[in-house]
Amino acid sequence: MIMIYPFVILCSLLFGVTASPLAPTETPGLSVPIRKFVNVTSGHNLVNTGRSRAQSFRDRAASKRTSSTKRQEVPVVNEIITYIAEITVGADNQTFHLLVDTGSSNTWIGANSSYAYVPSSSSVWTDDIVIVDYGSGYFFGYEYYDTVALSNDLVIKNQSIGVADFQQGFTSMDGILGIGPVALTDGTILGDLAPVTTVPTVSDNLFTEGIISAEVVGIAFVPTTGAADEPEGELIFGDVEGSSKYTGQITYTQKETDYWGITQSISYSGIEIMASAVGVVDTGTTLNYMPTDAFNAYINSTGGIFDEATGLYEITEEQYDALDDLVFTIGGTDFPLTSNAQIWPRTLNANIGGEEGKLYLAAVATDPVEDLNFINGYVFLERYFSVFDNTNSRVGFAATAYTNATTN
Ligand SMILES: *[C@@H]1O[C@H](CO)[C@@H](O)[C@H](O)[C@H]1NC(C)=O
Ligand SMILES: *[C@@H]1O[C@H](CO)[C@@H](O)[C@H](O)[C@H]1NC(C)=O
Ligand SMILES: *[C@@H]1O[C@H](CO)[C@@H](O)[C@H](O)[C@H]1NC(C)=O
Ligand SMILES: *[C@@H]1O[C@H](CO)[C@@H](O)[C@H](O)[C@H]1NC(C)=O
Ligand SMILES: *[C@@H]1O[C@H](CO)[C@@H](O)[C@H](O)[C@H]1NC(C)=O
Ligand SMILES: *[C@@H]1O[C@H](CO)[C@@H](O)[C@H](O)[C@H]1NC(C)=O
Fold it and tell me: Which atom number of ligand 5 is nearest to the Cα of residue 293?
């Protein structure tokens, strides 16, 4: 990253601006590689896991979250594809592998009880207890302040971090890197001394410690290729303008709700199937969720047939060839999903109980409630670069080299 600064300065000298249209090939923001792990174990219950996560969002949107809600025995996120950032904690650089989550905002470690955090000279025990309920799972533990490094350039001296004493629903990661808005941390701390309300997120601290100049996170996910070594994704903290991870312009839209919520409409075959409505963008949700009416209209047009084994709708080769773009219109810009982007990655059919060679649509119906009419999951985010901008309270999207890729 150090290499890019002379180039940026040179651009400034030549053009008088840093955001030159002659974008550098590297980004001026600070990047964190995110490894994509594909779990080859078969029989994952993708749809149930997603529904359970969607339910927790709905409960919060409808403000009727109660601990009496029946807890379901499903993982918090699907265990098939996960995006993991490697971070270090403490003066002795203990390594943890955290799930990147825009749908929650507490950062915590210790999900693997055989791999414990050991307080070091930089660790400060706060006397506070932290509890985060994710709907289908939760963790409970102790809150520390410690040094947290997301990369060599992104070192937070004083990050509030949860250390799990007990968790349910997290099996293949050490914890969560919560990059949702800080409001989602409200009420997660049982403060012993001062009445603690929210917990500054990693993005908040990178900004307040002067490491990034704007509280912005860009996310570049990559479609699953089925190759043994999946390409890496990337998180970019700070200035995302000019990143090589997207093409064209970023379209921004105002952030809605406590989540990374946006307003969008959806159309298929040129017909609007969901009028402009509010929903969320979520890295922890796999599929695209749309309101039942919109979903039915979409499925009717495609001719998809419900498949019991996967919980998804199956289409034939002929129906696949006849698919039109499924278009998400956000901030006045169309973000089409090509036919290839609308189907579940064929190489992962067996993982979800499907059959080799079959075609399943990667969309699910959801009962809309106010402020939660849809969830754009990572089947959308793998096709479009996304930007979560807390400084300007907005969310952005841009096309990428993968937008039209035919990897599925
Ligand atoms: C921890 O990592 C930093 C670089 O991020 C390095 O400067 C420091 O020496 C490392 N400390 C130990 C104990 O390995
Ligand atoms: C660390 O951050 C917390 C807030 O998260 C703050 O209360 C505390 O005073 C900070 N400690 C230092 C040493 O700056
Ligand atoms: C948990 O940690 C142990 C000890 O480091 C390791 O062997 C094991 O693979 C870890 N489990 C998971 C699910 O990461
Ligand atoms: C793969 O998924 C299964 C659940 O089907 C889970 O038990 C297992 O821990 C996962 N493996 C890894 C390495 O994440
Ligand atoms: C889809 O088709 C079925 C029967 O063909 C019909 O009952 C249903 O109303 C249609 N749904 C929509 C949203 O068009
Ligand atoms: C994807 O393909 C469409 C149709 O050919 C084209 O209009 C669009 O510019 C392409 N998008 C990208 C990001 O390549």
Answer: 13
Alpha-carbon span 254 to 352, nearest angstrom: 35
Per-residue pLDDT tens digits for 35-58: 888 776 666 677 877 887 888 887
Compute the distance from residue 175 Cα to the ligand 1 centre, in Å. 22
Pairing of strands 394-399, 384-389: antiparallel
- Within 8 A by CB and 6+ apart from 145, the residues are 123, 124, 126, 158, 159, 160, 161
pLDDT in tens, 4-15: 333 333 333 333
Residue 172 Cβ inside 6 Å of ligand 4? The answer reads yes
Cβ atoms of residues 381 and 219 within 8 Å: yes
User: Which ligand approaches the C-alpha of residue 398 most closely?
Assistant: 6
| 3-state DSSP assignment of residue 235 | strand
Atom index in ligand 6 nearest the CA of residue 247 equals 13
Cα separation, 94 vs 127, whole angstroms: 22
Count of other CB atoms within 10 angstroms of residue 16: 8
Which residue of 35, 77, 86, 114 sits with most ligand 3 atoms within 8 Å of its CB, as the best mutation to test the pocket? 114
3-state secondary structure of 105: coil
Q: Please state, in angstroms and rounded to a whole number, the distance separating the CA atoms of residues 338 and 360.
A: 14
Q: How far apart (Å, rounded) are the C-alpha atoms in residues 336 and 342?
A: 10
Q: Give Cα separations from 335 to 251, 328, 378, 400 (angstroms).
A: 10, 5, 14, 11
Q: What is the mean pLDDT of residues 343-354?
A: 91
101 is catalytic: yes
| Active site annotation includes 192 | no
| Residue whose CA is at the smallest distance from ligand 6 atom 5 | 404
Answer whether 227's CB lies under 8 Å from 22's CB: no
Backbone phi, psi, residue 202, to 5°: -60, -40
pLDDT, tens digit, 9 for 90 and up, residues 191-224: 766 667 899 999 999 999 999 999 999 999 999 8
Which domains, from first to last, does the chain contain?
30-217 (2.40.70.10), 246-399 (2.40.70.10)
296 lines ligand 5 (CB under 6 A): yes
* Residues 99, 37 contacting (CB under 8 angstroms): no
Mean pLDDT of 88-106: 96
End-to-end CA distance of the chain: 32
Nearest ligand, measured from the Cα of 94: 1
> Using an 8 Å Cβ cutoff, are 405 and 223 in contact?
yes
360 CB-side CA count, 13 A: 30
